[in-house]
Design goal:
Strand order of the largest sheet: 3-2-1-4-5-6-7
Oligomer: single chain
Distance between the termini: 45 Å
Strand content: 5-15%
Number of helices: 7
Shape: globular
Helix content: 25-40%
Radius of gyration: 18 Å
Amino acid sequence: MSPKKVLVTGVYGLIAGAIYRKLSELPDQYEVYALARRSQPSDRAPEDVALQIPDDRFFLADLSNFDQVMAATEEMDVVVQMAADPRPEAPWESILNSNMIGAYNVFEASQLTGVKRIIYASSVMATWGYQLDEPYKAIKECRFEEVPAEIPLITHKDPPRPTEPYSASKVWGEALARTYSDVHGVSCICLRIGWVNAEDRPYLPEVGAVWCSQRDIVQIIQKSIEAPDHLRFDILYGVSNNKYRWVDIEHARESVGFVPQDRGEDMPTN
């Protein structure tokens, strides 16, 4: 069987760069391509890790340019759609162009060029609003002594609760994924990714509950790429198995075989 052709967008970002490196280590399984709007690491990416991307496998493109996106998705089997403005405080114009128009262009181009599967980088912030309620509010405010021993986990079946345009744009992306799965038959897997950082440790306790190690996020992306063809649509939480985790990861295990290897409280703090 020939290697899968996989396009990773936003490749100079932290998570996209990590998955590009992992897949590139497996040339018998993957023929990896990359897309970015500039040839330099993002602010969140590790400074000491360089990507070696062959010129003939790199697309310099802005996702708001549909023709450039079309050219990049030609002949791809899988698109890992990571490119976005990741800032919750980002201005509306940036959210609109990067996260909404850009996401639409990726989905539309992919279905036109015959891409079989899209892995869409959503965010745990699609359900951030649950932290307005107890007991999730207690976790956010680090009132851990008030957190019950067992709490109802938020699952993919609970309604989204975005809290600003950034997280609302991720809900929009999930709706696009549902549309392109149902109407066009593209397999779409949405990953509600937790807090992944260059330091690879949860140094802020208030977000440690939804921290995700680089090893775990790479695992769930790769398992989503390799999920059976009959998986047409799903929403999975990509977080490590942290002590005060308030989102469900069991569904990701059942769906694609994701088993987190890390826990935030086991990581070094300095």
